[in-house]
Design goal:
By secondary structure, this protein is an all-alpha fold. The protein has two domains: 95 residues, Rna Polymerase Sigma Factor, Chain: A, CATH 1.10.1740; 75 residues, Orthogonal Bundle (Arc Repressor Mutant, subunit A). Helix content is 78%, strand content 0%. The protein has nine helices and no strands. The protein is globular and about 55 Å long. The protein starts with a helix and ends with a helix. About 8% of the residues have low confidence.
């Protein structure tokens, strides 16, 4: 954590390489977190970029609190997702056909990923808010239980129990989804 703290301090002093390293180390995890939450890969990419833009603007006011810096990034990401759903519920949208505009190297893999992401997103929406959060942090962000406990403000035992019930519920919803 000492190295991370030094890296953040450099970024706060406008060291572009330091912020670039923070970006590289955290982009994929933040993207997966957002993609699982909203179920749309292209919008998740946009929101992830917005998270890092906000982090860049606010990093000078960041205060070290003996928790991983990524916890601050996840808080920004969580707020972006909340804002995304608020805006989405206010205005009607027409969904673009991403298959037509896709320029992926492997369109079948991209389509398969999209279907799996949509199925998982639908199943996750049937879980409680806390279950969704623990699944996102533990598996899409690959965080250890201790870090999830810090971010969620709970004890490790509570996170383990929550994770277990979330997996059971998710498994149940996924089976129902496949059989529907």
């Amino acid at each position: 954590m000492q190295d991370e703290q030094a890296l953040v301090k450099r970024a706060q002093e406008y060291d572009q390489e330091a912020f670039a390293q923070i970006y590289e180390e955290n982009f994929d995890k933040i993207f997966r977190y957002i993609a699982i939450k909203i179920g749309n890969q292209m919008e998740a990419e946009d929101l992830t970029q917005q998270v890092f833009m906000k982090a860049l603007k606010a990093i000078s006011s960041y205060k070290w609190k003996d928790v991983p810096f990524s916890a601050w990034l996840y808080k920004i990401a969580h707020n972006q997702v909340v804002d995304y759903f608020r805006k989405k519920n206010r205005r009607p949208e027409t969904e673009l056909n991403e298959d037509i505009t896709s320029v992926e190297d492997h369109p079948y893999k991209a389509a398969e990923f999209k279907v799996e992401l949509e199925e998982l997103s639908r199943a996750l929406k049937k879980l409680t808010h806390l279950q969704q959060e623990v699944i996102s942090l533990r598996f899409s962000c690959e965080m250890p239980i201790a870090q999830v406990a810090i971010i969620m403000g709970k004890k490790e035992g509570a996170i383990k129990a929550l994770q277990h019930s979330a997996i059971q519920a998710l498994r149940k919803h996924m089976v129902v989804e496949k059989n529907a």
